[in-house]
Amino acid sequence: MKKILALLFVLFSMQTIFAQVLEPVKWIGTVEKISDTEYNLIYSAEIEDHWHLYSQNLPEGGAIPTEFIYDENAVSKDFELVGKATESASITKFDKVFEMDLTYFDYEATFTQKIKILNPDLTSIEAEVSYQACDDAKCIFESKTVDFQIKSDKKESNILDPVKWTSSIYSLGNNEYEIAYTAVLDNKWHIYSQDNKDPMGPIPTEINLKNDNKDFKLIGGLKESKSIKKFEKAFDMDVKYFSNEAVFTQKIKVLNTDLKTIEAEAYFQACDDEKCLAPTYFDLKTNLADVTPKSASDDEVVLDIDSSSDSESKGLWGIFFIAFLSGFAALLTPCVFPMIPMTVSFFTKQSKSKAAGIKNAIIYGLCIIVIYLLLGTAVTGIFGADALNALATNVWFNIIFFILLVVFAFSFLGAFEIMLPNSWANKVDSQANRGGMVGIFFMALALAIVSFSCTGPIVGTLLVEAASKGGLAPIIGMLGFSSAIALPFALFAAFPGWLNSLPKSGGWLNTVKVVLGFLELALAFKFLSQADLVLQMHLLEREVFIAIWIAIFGTLALYLFGKIQLPHDSPLKHISVGRLSLGLIVLTFTIYMIPGLWGAPLNLISAFPPPLDYSESPYGVGNSKGGGSASADHSDLPEGAHLLAPHDILAFNDYDLGLAYAKKVNKPVMIDFTGWACVNCRKMEQNVWPKPEILNALKNDVVLLSLYVDDKRPLEKDEIVDSKLREGKQLKYIGQKWSEFQTIKYKSNTQPYYVLMDHNEENLIKPVAFTPDADEYFNWLKAGIQNFK
Fold first, then answer.
1. Residue 563 Cα distances to 247, 543, 573, 575, 576, angstroms
2. Cα(620)–Cα(774) distance, rounded to whole angstroms?
3. Is residue 277 within a helix (H) or strand (E), and if so which, with residue range?
4. Distance between CA atoms of 158 and 767, rounded to whole angstroms?
5. Which of 173, 356, 458, 600 is the most buried (most CB within 10 A)?
6. H or E element in which residue 28 lies
7. CA nearest to 788, candidates 760, 746, 752
8. Cα–Cα distances in Å, from 107 out to 49, 52, 420, 541?
């Protein structure tokens, strides 16, 4: 009876999904080497929400268990199975349909089959997985083929390719299409989200569509599937990455009806728990002939692609809170604060009753919110939900943001006023006399225009900061800002007696404006610093950045203490308690930053200045260890060398100069293939290299050659050559040069990767990768040095 019931349930499920092909379980096969003859075949199943996959071990009469089937001839000749496949943690619950306890998996499952190789020439194994998957309404029964690549010792290579890219295209009608770029990742590997914007963080994934002939236009920004957010100690920040699979979608409108293919380029970096690969470019080509109509099941995928995670929601709440505080700061400026009693008094006197006055003031406040929301919506609509995000990570737009904030700062400091044309104010003011809700709306618009000289820089700064978040951030920012502006008008209209408690307008309003100007100026250098970091120009290193902030906040402290006056300030006969308190806080903050010049971490502002290793010297200005200055240590350095922070290791970034110096001093060369965004490179430098015996060898027994495979500085024109790995492409960046050099010469593309070689560029010992065991790393280093001697 149970078998009949199960069969009927499956048949009914198949009938309900006849018109819609479902694939709730995706399978990936990877191989783990145990020894020369033993391997683990790992089946990784990714299960969609609300679906579950059944275990191998089920009682008879229930659901169909998962089964792995191999070719009988291959099992007897090429390999043998060692035991039964093991499986990851599962769930066991009573199932009402089958009237028994069933064991199943949600979200993901892993099955591991140990094998022993009998045929040494075996390169691949093909297996079939037979399984049943169900949700609350239906079931499917499927068989899938899973391929496993067995790498024999004869053909073993250190070149890894853990990411496989494919593309598909869907028709949306009206010459509009949606292209989905899918990256399937090997087990334990991940690539990074495009939302990782910090220049010193991991390299974000980019999909760049080639559209030189303007054959199509982009609709909105690049969307991505849901990512994982995790704090990474190596970067000292939260990073977002993908495991198993990542999907990026881009909507386009085709303008050229003769267009046959759409070409794109994926730029990404893949890492696992031990190593990272050099940033990689992958060419993607999508044929319009392969287009398929958009189906209901595809819509579900697209909804999942639009990553509205909890972390993003928290980010939007942060934007709202900052914008709300900025709105209160704008209230305390000379352009807005005097308008509060004037406007509230107008509504209460002109209205026939107190209730009508309160209603009109509330409508007035809502109109203020609508006006600023329209501004945020316009910015998002014009540039696209994600275009501002992309611009904010661009070097030149960071420089533009810097200039913009400097202009805002000088405006607040009184150098000039940023004003909208007077004709706008006159026209709007004439409309405000119309009365009713239309008149109230134009009164609110008049306030926005008249107060623009004070609110404009704050609004502009908010939009710039929101741009770095992308998405709906500009709209949320304007909602927070306008809510703070509108709130006092509604409250004071409801309680007009509170107006008597408001402080009188005076010179303190200009003080607030000047303080905001200093804050704008300090914030501006954050954007300039990000551009400098990406370009690696070292013009605004950590010491310079901190010195600029010390100068800005030190001058602000002097201003608050009345030692400095600006042209628009009122005469200051005495300092109020509030101004004195604020001055003491700013002075304390200024003094706090001073040790940062000597290498202090300054945790309170760690998100603003460049990192500790992006500095003029390992120890800041002077030498915190005592005994001379850092600059003196650099005076006799050979050409092309520098002292690697924070241990004064002599290092070269140029291969030829480093090799020439090694020959001169008769020392072996240690090539360090590394990257600015390489997590495990930093772990080696922070945890392994500082060990006394290793540090001594690095400083005295070898010449260190650090080659950054993700260095995006352009090559000189005479150094640009054709790529030997990517036909038809050129090497344009320094990092591409070193990455291709490592791949071709050493048959490896992972970082960190360490090579010890002699002056003939021959290996002294087999190269090693990430080696967290300091003793093991030292023994490797010692053996290589001994072989040189």
1. 59, 27, 12, 11, 14
2. 28
3. strand 276-277
4. 11
5. 458
6. strand 25-33
7. 760
8. 6, 7, 56, 46
Instruction: Phi first, then psi: give them for residue 367, nearest 5 degrees.
Output: -65, -40
Sheet strand arrangement including 276-277: 228-232, 237-243, 190-192, 270-271, 276-277, 750-751
What are the structure tokens assigned to 778, written together?
């030292």
Preceding amide of 646 cis, omega within 30: yes
What mean pLDDT is reported for the chain?
Answer: 78
Predicted structure pTM score? 0.52
Measure the CA dihedral 717/722/724/727, to 10°: 150
- Using CA atoms, how far apart are residues 387 and 222, in angstroms rounded to an integer? 9
Per the CB < 8 A criterion, the answer to whether 190 and 272 are in contact is yes
CA 211/CA 226 separation, integer angstroms: 27
Q: Residue type at 658?
A: G
Query: Per-residue pLDDT tens for 321-373?
Result: 887 887 777 777 666 666 666 666 666 666 667 777 777 778 877 888 888 78
Round the CA-based radius of gyration of the chain to a whole number and report it: 32
What six digits make up the tokens of 291? 């287009």
Which of the residue ranges 75-84, 233-242, 491-500 would you say has the lowest mean pLDDT?
A: 491-500
DSSP 8-state code for residue 569: P
Instruction: Kindly state the DSSP code that residue 725 receives in the 8-state scheme.
Output: S
Burial 725-762 (b: 16+ CB within 10 A, else e): eeeeeebebbbbbbbbbbbeebebbbbbbbbbbeeeee
Give how far the C-alpha of residue 59 lies from the chain's centroid of Cα atoms, to the nearest Å.
Answer: 47
Structure tokens at 165: 């890219």
Are the CB atoms for 67 and 82 separated by under 8 Å?
no
Residue 221 · residue 252 · CB < 8 Å:
no
Chain segment 79-101, per-residue pLDDT in tens: 999 989 999 888 888 877 677 88
Q: How many CB atoms lie within 10 A of CB 476?
A: 22
